[in-house]
Write a structure and sequence with these properties.
The chain is built from seven helices and 18 strands. The protein is of the alpha+beta class. The strands form five sheets. Strands 10-16-17-18-15-11 form a six-stranded mixed sheet, with no helix packed on it. A four-stranded antiparallel sheet has the order 1-4-3-2. The chain has a three-stranded mixed sheet with strand order 6-9-8. A hairpin with a 5-residue loop joins strand 8 and strand 9.
Amino acid sequence: DKIESATAEILLDNRARLYDPLTGGGGSFPYASSIVPRKNVQVTVNDRPVFTGLVDAWDIDYEINKDSTSRAVCADGFITLAETDISTAQKTAQSSGARIEAILTEAGWPSSKRNIATGQVTLQNDTPDADTNLLEYASRVKSTEFGSLFINREGLATFQDRQETQNFGTFTVLGSGGIPISAVQIENGTDELHNVIRLQRVGGTEVERSDATSKTTFGISELTASKLLFDDDVEVGDLADYLLARFKDATFSINQVVIVMDGLTASQQNTVAELDINAPVQVSFAPAVGPAVTQFATIDRINHAFVPGEHVVTFSMSEAKPSFILNDTTFGQLDDDRLGF
């Protein structure tokens, strides 16, 4: 799915009016000139960034003759890209990574704040429609690649191609034998089940793939995408085949893990702080009775909650679908593991 902008809310004690632009500044109010929208902001844990972005708004509340707070409402760099339309100039045939680089350059995004993979697919020549939003177009590039696009914890515009998102050569262990966890949530449902896939590229015909057994068992659940940027329908069919194989069955998956940072070693805290979107993890825990549960997953969402004396991290995740890795004891099993797309 499309990854949304990261957000942060930072609540400040404003009883001394340190975070109030109406004071006019001066010796007693040194921060007044900085209480403005689009101020750069970064949240760190042990000097590791966990959020980098911009202040979108300052909300200042006063209780007359009592408390006052100033709240910085922040978002990552998507907040500026979302306000930009892509030009209607023709885009030449190029790799998905090169296309992302080109539209970021067009938007004036600094080259020093990018982490862009080369990409595994060549995109067609394309002329965007007028008033096409840059992020919407970038999402189409991401969907064609079957990769991932997001602003990482350090504030870099990050594009991962399909090779990166399916590679589980290294992973972080959460739970037994790794980072201690305090709670786990498991879901057995059909949110990620799709047994009819309909895809269409710009200038192509619609390609459909379906699974009769899955439709009979679970009912019809469709996944559709249009305006993909492949240069032929064969590749569209290849993606449709892969998506059907990946999503036609219901999954019993670990979808949330909670970690209390207080009490962890500094090394463990650093490991947690350095995890980012799409990071591969292995979750392992032993319920009170019965066998232990172990599953590989990728991180979809990260929430850091800081209150005085406590820091809790919640990872939302989905079951991993890594590609076949030769000689790997976990991901190199014939007739079990799936070849990558």
